[in-house]
Amino acid sequence: MTQVTFTNVDRDNDGKIDHFLAELTYEGMSGSGTIGEIAISLDGEDVSLDKVRMKIGEGDFQPVRPGMFVSGSYGDKIVLEIAKEGGLSKGKHSLRFMGSVSGYPLNFVLEGTV
Fold first, then answer.
1. Closest CA to 51 of 29, 27, 81
2. Which residues lie closer than 8 Å to 48 by C-beta, 6 or more apart?
3. Which CATH number describes the domain made up of 2-113?
4. What residues does the C-glycoside deglycosidase beta subunit domain cover (predicted)?
5. pTM for this model (two decimals)
6. How far apart (Å, rounded) are the C-alpha atoms in residues 109 and 52?
7. Across 70-99, average pLDDT
8. Which of 5, 35, 64, 71 qualifies as a FRET site for 103, CA 20 to 30 Å off?
9. In sequence order, what are the residues at sequence separation of 6 or more whose Cβ sits closer than 8 angstroms to the Cβ of residue 18?
10. What per-residue confidence (pLDDT) applies to 3?
11. In the beta sheet, which residues pair with residue 5?
């Protein structure tokens, strides 16, 4: 399991928490690939991909989807932004990713607390 920092945010500045960020430092090999099928769950519940955006390093936020090209280097900061009304409750949470990148299996869990 990889440790992640979770932060609740008010993305549209209306005074209500509507998203959360999951931030981590990439510690894998530098490289690039194309996301194949992907499934994301939060604390065991499926997360719709239309609610997820990702930023790697100095890049811009992009919607996470099959066919998305990704590129990262060791030490890059990865930020996931997930739409969730009210954000995350205080306490421990986990995000699971299952799928593939350029045909290689992808299965990992990010854990952290709010």
1. 81
2. none
3. 2.60.40
4. 25-97
5. 0.90
6. 16
7. 96
8. 5
9. 9, 10, 11, 12, 83, 84, 85, 86, 87
10. 86
11. 23
